Amino acid sequence: MLSAAEPVVSAFVLEAPGGHVQKVVQHLLRTVQSPQNYVERRRAQRHAYPYPLRLWLARACQISANVVQTVGGGDIVMGKHLSTGGLDFYSPEPIVDRRVVISLEAGHAQPVQMLTELTWCRFGGHGMYVNGGRFLRLLDRAQNTSPALVPQHDGCNESQHAATC
Q1: What is the 3-state secondary structure (H, E, C) of the chain?
Q2: What is the mean pLDDT of residues 64-78?
Q3: Domains of the chain
Protein backbone atom coordinates (compact mmCIF):
# COMPACT_ATOMS: atom_id res chain seq x y z
CA MET A 1 0.00 0.00 0.00
CA LEU A 2 1.35 3.43 -0.89
CA SER A 3 1.78 6.07 1.75
CA ALA A 4 1.28 9.76 1.04
CA ALA A 5 5.07 10.29 1.08
CA GLU A 6 5.79 7.71 -1.70
CA PRO A 7 5.80 8.93 -5.28
CA VAL A 8 3.25 7.42 -7.64
CA VAL A 9 4.78 5.97 -10.80
CA SER A 10 2.61 5.28 -13.82
CA ALA A 11 2.48 1.59 -14.78
CA PHE A 12 1.80 2.41 -18.43
CA VAL A 13 4.79 3.34 -20.53
CA LEU A 14 4.20 4.22 -24.15
CA GLU A 15 7.08 3.44 -26.46
CA ALA A 16 7.54 4.15 -30.12
CA PRO A 17 7.57 1.14 -32.49
CA GLY A 18 11.02 -0.42 -32.78
CA GLY A 19 11.90 0.69 -29.26
CA HIS A 20 13.70 -1.22 -26.53
CA VAL A 21 10.65 -3.21 -25.35
CA GLN A 22 10.01 -4.65 -28.81
CA LYS A 23 13.69 -5.61 -29.19
CA VAL A 24 13.73 -7.38 -25.83
CA VAL A 25 10.52 -9.30 -26.64
CA GLN A 26 11.89 -10.30 -30.06
CA HIS A 27 15.04 -11.60 -28.34
CA LEU A 28 12.91 -13.57 -25.86
CA LEU A 29 10.92 -15.11 -28.71
CA ARG A 30 14.10 -16.13 -30.53
CA THR A 31 15.43 -17.85 -27.41
CA VAL A 32 12.31 -19.99 -26.93
CA GLN A 33 11.86 -20.95 -30.59
CA SER A 34 13.56 -24.10 -31.78
CA PRO A 35 16.37 -23.61 -34.25
CA GLN A 36 15.37 -24.74 -37.74
CA ASN A 37 18.77 -26.16 -38.68
CA TYR A 38 19.15 -28.99 -36.15
CA VAL A 39 19.02 -32.67 -37.03
CA GLU A 40 16.14 -34.52 -35.40
CA ARG A 41 17.40 -37.77 -33.89
CA ARG A 42 13.98 -39.23 -33.29
CA ARG A 43 12.19 -41.64 -35.63
CA ALA A 44 8.97 -39.62 -35.63
CA GLN A 45 8.48 -35.88 -35.90
CA ARG A 46 7.38 -34.20 -32.69
CA HIS A 47 4.53 -31.72 -32.55
CA ALA A 48 3.81 -29.24 -29.79
CA TYR A 49 0.97 -30.57 -27.65
CA PRO A 50 0.35 -28.06 -24.83
CA TYR A 51 -2.89 -29.63 -23.65
CA PRO A 52 -3.95 -31.33 -20.42
CA LEU A 53 -3.64 -35.11 -20.23
CA ARG A 54 -5.07 -37.51 -17.70
CA LEU A 55 -2.64 -40.06 -16.26
CA TRP A 56 -3.12 -43.22 -14.20
CA LEU A 57 -0.44 -45.55 -12.91
CA ALA A 58 -0.90 -48.81 -14.81
CA ARG A 59 -0.67 -50.82 -11.58
CA ALA A 60 -3.77 -48.96 -10.33
CA CYS A 61 -5.80 -49.97 -13.42
CA GLN A 62 -7.29 -53.25 -14.50
CA ILE A 63 -5.87 -53.97 -17.95
CA SER A 64 -6.83 -57.12 -19.85
CA ALA A 65 -6.11 -57.55 -23.56
CA ASN A 66 -6.71 -54.03 -24.89
CA VAL A 67 -9.41 -53.04 -22.40
CA VAL A 68 -8.68 -50.77 -19.47
CA GLN A 69 -10.78 -50.12 -16.40
CA THR A 70 -9.55 -46.95 -14.70
CA VAL A 71 -10.34 -46.04 -11.12
CA GLY A 72 -10.94 -42.46 -10.11
CA GLY A 73 -10.11 -39.36 -12.08
CA GLY A 74 -6.37 -39.91 -12.43
CA ASP A 75 -3.87 -37.07 -12.30
CA ILE A 76 -3.85 -34.11 -14.65
CA VAL A 77 -0.50 -33.39 -16.32
CA MET A 78 0.33 -30.93 -19.09
CA GLY A 79 1.42 -32.17 -22.49
CA LYS A 80 4.59 -30.87 -24.13
CA HIS A 81 5.19 -32.84 -27.36
CA LEU A 82 3.32 -35.60 -29.16
CA SER A 83 4.54 -37.90 -31.93
CA THR A 84 3.29 -41.09 -33.49
CA GLY A 85 5.70 -43.01 -31.25
CA GLY A 86 5.17 -41.34 -27.88
CA LEU A 87 4.93 -38.12 -25.92
CA ASP A 88 6.46 -36.00 -23.22
CA PHE A 89 4.66 -33.98 -20.58
CA TYR A 90 5.10 -31.82 -17.50
CA SER A 91 4.15 -32.99 -14.02
CA PRO A 92 4.57 -31.41 -10.58
CA GLU A 93 6.28 -34.58 -9.28
CA PRO A 94 8.45 -37.22 -10.93
CA ILE A 95 6.46 -40.25 -12.11
CA VAL A 96 8.26 -43.20 -10.55
CA ASP A 97 6.24 -45.97 -12.23
CA ARG A 98 7.42 -47.11 -15.63
CA ARG A 99 4.00 -47.93 -17.10
CA VAL A 100 1.10 -45.51 -17.13
CA VAL A 101 -2.22 -45.10 -18.90
CA ILE A 102 -2.47 -41.74 -20.66
CA SER A 103 -5.78 -40.30 -21.83
CA LEU A 104 -5.62 -37.70 -24.61
CA GLU A 105 -8.62 -35.62 -25.60
CA ALA A 106 -9.59 -36.06 -29.25
CA GLY A 107 -11.80 -33.04 -29.91
CA HIS A 108 -15.46 -33.89 -29.47
CA ALA A 109 -14.81 -37.63 -29.77
CA GLN A 110 -14.13 -39.93 -26.83
CA PRO A 111 -10.67 -39.56 -25.27
CA VAL A 112 -7.95 -41.85 -26.62
CA GLN A 113 -6.22 -44.01 -24.01
CA MET A 114 -2.75 -45.43 -24.49
CA LEU A 115 -0.66 -47.76 -22.39
CA THR A 116 2.64 -45.88 -22.25
CA GLU A 117 6.11 -46.87 -21.06
CA LEU A 118 7.91 -43.94 -19.47
CA THR A 119 11.59 -44.04 -20.38
CA TRP A 120 12.91 -40.84 -18.84
CA CYS A 121 12.21 -38.10 -16.30
CA ARG A 122 14.16 -34.99 -15.43
CA PHE A 123 13.68 -31.80 -13.50
CA GLY A 124 12.68 -29.12 -15.97
CA GLY A 125 12.80 -26.07 -13.73
CA HIS A 126 9.99 -23.90 -12.40
CA GLY A 127 9.04 -26.71 -10.00
CA MET A 128 8.03 -29.06 -12.81
CA TYR A 129 9.37 -32.39 -14.05
CA VAL A 130 9.44 -33.42 -17.69
CA ASN A 131 8.59 -37.08 -18.33
CA GLY A 132 8.64 -38.90 -21.63
CA GLY A 133 8.01 -42.28 -23.10
CA ARG A 134 6.73 -44.41 -25.91
CA PHE A 135 3.27 -45.71 -26.68
CA LEU A 136 2.91 -49.46 -26.20
CA ARG A 137 -0.67 -49.95 -27.35
CA LEU A 138 -4.05 -48.35 -27.80
CA LEU A 139 -6.55 -49.29 -25.12
CA ASP A 140 -10.28 -49.69 -25.61
CA ARG A 141 -11.81 -46.44 -24.46
CA ALA A 142 -15.30 -47.92 -24.19
CA GLN A 143 -14.42 -49.13 -20.69
CA ASN A 144 -13.28 -45.72 -19.47
CA THR A 145 -15.03 -44.63 -16.28
CA SER A 146 -13.07 -41.43 -15.78
CA PRO A 147 -14.58 -37.96 -15.97
CA ALA A 148 -13.80 -35.76 -18.97
CA LEU A 149 -10.98 -33.22 -18.79
CA VAL A 150 -13.42 -30.42 -19.58
CA PRO A 151 -15.17 -29.31 -16.38
CA GLN A 152 -18.85 -30.21 -16.28
CA HIS A 153 -21.28 -27.43 -15.41
CA ASP A 154 -23.82 -28.11 -12.67
CA GLY A 155 -27.40 -28.04 -13.85
CA CYS A 156 -26.79 -28.16 -17.60
CA ASN A 157 -25.77 -30.66 -20.21
CA GLU A 158 -23.74 -29.96 -23.38
CA SER A 159 -26.79 -29.01 -25.48
CA GLN A 160 -28.00 -26.58 -22.81
CA HIS A 161 -24.52 -25.17 -22.16
CA ALA A 162 -24.34 -22.89 -25.20
CA ALA A 163 -27.69 -21.30 -24.44
CA THR A 164 -27.73 -21.02 -20.66
CA CYS A 165 -24.33 -21.47 -19.03
Answers
A1: CCCCCCCCCCCCCCCCCCCHHHHHHHHHHHHHCCCCCCCCCCCCCCEECCCEEEEEEHHHCEEECCEEECCCCCEEEEEEEECCCEEEEEECCCCCCCEEEEEEEECCEEEEEEEEEEEEEEEEECCEEEEEEEEEEEEEHHHCCCCCCCCCCCCCCHHHHHHHC
A2: 81
A3: 47-143 (2.40.10)
